[in-house]
């Protein structure tokens, strides 16, 4: 038994896509544009056919980089981007008002050097705007041929159902891995029920579920993991042991830790795809090398027994970030 390509918005894609954020922001130093473009070209050559970017990543840098890399190759990639989070200048916070959605899309089309985006997400829930109004505007953008489908990011099952009442929602993107399981409360099932593809971001635990554990003290000053509770102090001391044992499960199964984590994520349903990100070509190659490997049931059971909501120490986000998240959370 092996994993097969899976649909997003009616298009079959490799279930391992590419999260492009690391090429512009979040995990320390940004690679040169030349290196970033080389990585994106290598990704296409390896079989990655789903790229995920966002306006937030590098404040436009990531969309610009992806746009440059896709010149002459646009038809090779199912392209997703996001809008709604503002982190520079006078405008900060979340804005998914209809007028903002439309103006942000026009900027993204220009930066990406394309006339349409296959999947366009609201990056976060705007609690000041009814979800029905935001989705209604995105539906009009579909009618105009500027986007192919609507996505939501880090939103609840209830929000998904409200959105689906206005227009079909092609994808819900939420953090998901063996050590981040909030999606299991309600969103995974809601996606299956509504015909929505679940897109798992950070499916290798922001680098934790790999064979090269990121020691927090060695992270660069601007690395966002420094502010995440599970990478801090006593939490990390507890988690490090879990992660070391996880790597041993992978070794016994004949795969790397990252490959085990990705296979575990894909095993959670035929409507699930994953978008690991990296700025390093060896990791890019590793992540897709075993894309069609189906995790045996006994190995999945070992993972579940080792790493779960009860055993992992610390939340995935600090309090300030949690206030922007609509996804259901554990008590």
Write the layout of secondary structure elements.
Blueprint: E1 6-8, E2 11-13, E3 18-19, H1 33-46, E4 50-52, H2 61-69, E5 78-83, E6 85-88, E7 91-94, H3 98-112, E8 119-122, H4 131-143, E9 150-153, H5 157-164, E10 171-175, H6 187-194, E11 197-201, H7 233-253, H8 257-266, E12 272-275, H9 281-289, H10 297-306, H11 319-322
Parallel strand pairs: 3-4, 4-5, 5-8, 8-9, 9-10, 10-11, 11-12
Antiparallel strand pairs: 1-2, 6-7
Overview of this protein structure:
This protein is α/β, with parallel strands linked by helices and 331 residues long. The protein has one domain: NADP-dependent oxidoreductase domain (TIM Barrel, Alpha-Beta Barrel), CATH 3.20.20. The protein is 37% helix and 14% strand. The chain has eleven helices and twelve strands. The protein has helices spanning 33-46, 61-69, 98-112, 131-143, 157-164, 187-194, 233-253, 257-266, 281-289, 297-306, 319-322; strands spanning 6-8, 11-13, 18-19, 50-52, 78-83, 85-88, 91-94, 119-122, 150-153, 171-175, 197-201, 272-275. An eight-stranded parallel beta sheet has the order 3-4-5-8-9-10-11-12. A two-stranded antiparallel ribbon has the order 1-2. Helix 1 packs parallel to helix 9, helix 3 (98-112) crosses helix 4 (131-143) and helix 7 (233-253) runs antiparallel to helix 10. The two termini are 37 Å apart. InterPro entries: AKR, Aldo-Keto_reductase, NAD(P)_OxRdtase_dom_sf, NADP_OxRdtase_dom.
